[in-house]
Specification:
By secondary structure, the chain is α/β, with parallel strands linked by helices. About 40% of the residues lie in helices and about 20% in strands. The chain contains 7 helices and 6 strands, in the order H-E-H-E-E-H-H-E-H-E-E-H-H. The strands form 2 sheets. It has a 3-stranded mixed sheet with strand order 1-2-3. A 3-stranded mixed sheet has the order 4-5-6. The relative contact order is 0.16.
């Protein structure tokens, strides 16, 4: 685990193990977007048109704007259900800045841009929760070791 304090963790640190950047097209159908999200195990992804970000679409958009309204997912285009106004961060935004953006805008996903302003994926509040949990576990272990000492090694338990 990275031992940086939370104020020094940046978006790049939180997505460092990301292997690919996913998106759907604005002219894809709601069904295609929903299937892509399911297959990729994502809750939301960017919507691109001509290689440029035009919005974000999520499972929530599909369920509330298509299914709940009785619209045909085969005929409904992503551009009709996406959220066009997205909150963006870059790879240098801090953990704390991301938390503040989630809270201020009451959202669960932030769009990431690279240094050139190109779409670089999405980060969710779950990414931040996972990093926070990891950090808290590490801090608790340090406190436990300080208070009670470290666990004996297996060889010390057996008397080797």
């Amino acid at each position: 685990m990275n031992e940086k304090d939370l104020g020094k963790i940046v978006v790049r640190d939180m997505i460092e193990d990301r292997e690919a950047i996913y998106s759907v097209g604005a002219d894809d159908t709601a069904r295609e977007a929903s299937e892509a999200l399911k297959k990729l195990k994502l809750r939301a992804t960017g919507v691109l048109e001509d290689g440029k970000l035009v919005g974000i679409v999520s499972h929530y958009d599909v369920s509330t704007k298509v299914v709940a309204k009785g619209m045909d997912p085969e005929k409904t285009k992503v551009r009709e259900i996406m959220t066009p106004d997205v909150v963006k961060v870059n790879l240098r935004h801090s953990f704390t800045e991301c938390l503040e953006l989630f809270e201020r805008h009451d959202i669960s996903h932030l769009v990431i841009e690279d240094r050139k302003g190109n779409y670089y994926g999405v980060i969710s509040n779950k990414h931040l929760q996972a990093r926070l949990l990891e950090m808290l576990k590490s801090m608790l272990e340090i406190a436990r070791q300080y208070a009670f000492g470290s666990y004996p090694k297996e060889s010390e338990k057996r008397g080797d």
